[in-house]
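Query form — protein Energy-coupling factor transporter transmembrane protein EcfT

QUESTION: What is the three-dimensional structure of this chain?
INPUT:
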Amino acid sequence: MNAHRGDTLTLDVPEDAGARHLLTRFNPAAKLLAALVLALGLVPAADPVTGAVVLAVVLAVVPVSGVDRHTLLVLGVPFLLMGGSTLVVNLLYGDQGADGALGAAVRVLAIALPGLLAAVSSDPTDLADGLVQRLRMPERPAMGILAALRLVPLLADQWRTITLARRARGISAGGNPIRAVALFFGRLFSLLVRSIRTGTLLATAMDARAFGTGPRTRARVSRWGRGDTLLVAAAPALLAAAYAISHSAGTLVLLWT
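ANSWER: The structure tokens for Energy-coupling factor transporter transmembrane protein EcfT are given below.
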């Protein structure tokens, strides 16, 4: 499960974790690579069946991901809204009818969920190690990703602090929806200022430690096992099965057709 400790986000997995934490045992680089393969492979599919097959399989993995369902639902709200808005926009203005609109919405969810599961089920430090050591990503962007994941709980705490500080000063909407919107954007601007200051400090600290200037030693080794290879290989296999099912059902529609 995800634990909030100070200003960090960590993934605590018991040593005797069973099937419920199966996904957390894979290398984060393997999970991200599999999610990327699924995302790229689903881009040409404009029908709802292909994306639905992939989405169903990924949803079946959720119980063994080690991720709290409430946390996953909260983090997935933006993608649900994105899928819903895609459905509505394509229904109103698209030229492919209801099937095309549903296919676009399902494709958005099928692309987003694997990446979300891969990120949330991975320890940030292990993820950065995997990106650098296994996927050969430059250190600067990898450490930037690590810093961003570490700062998510800190930004949430700062949002609560800003809200409580304004409440203590008697600044409230008072039932006025227009004022409530103005106060929300005011808090959002304050959070943006704090995040920029924090990002500047992190960038200065990374420059002081000479990130990206040459080879560095590793505190930990990012291990890649047979299961990680099988996970990456399962992604194109799932895509092939999804396209085959859609083709056999006579529903396969590609973007360029």
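ADDITIONAL NOTE: The first strand starts at residue 2 and ends at 5.
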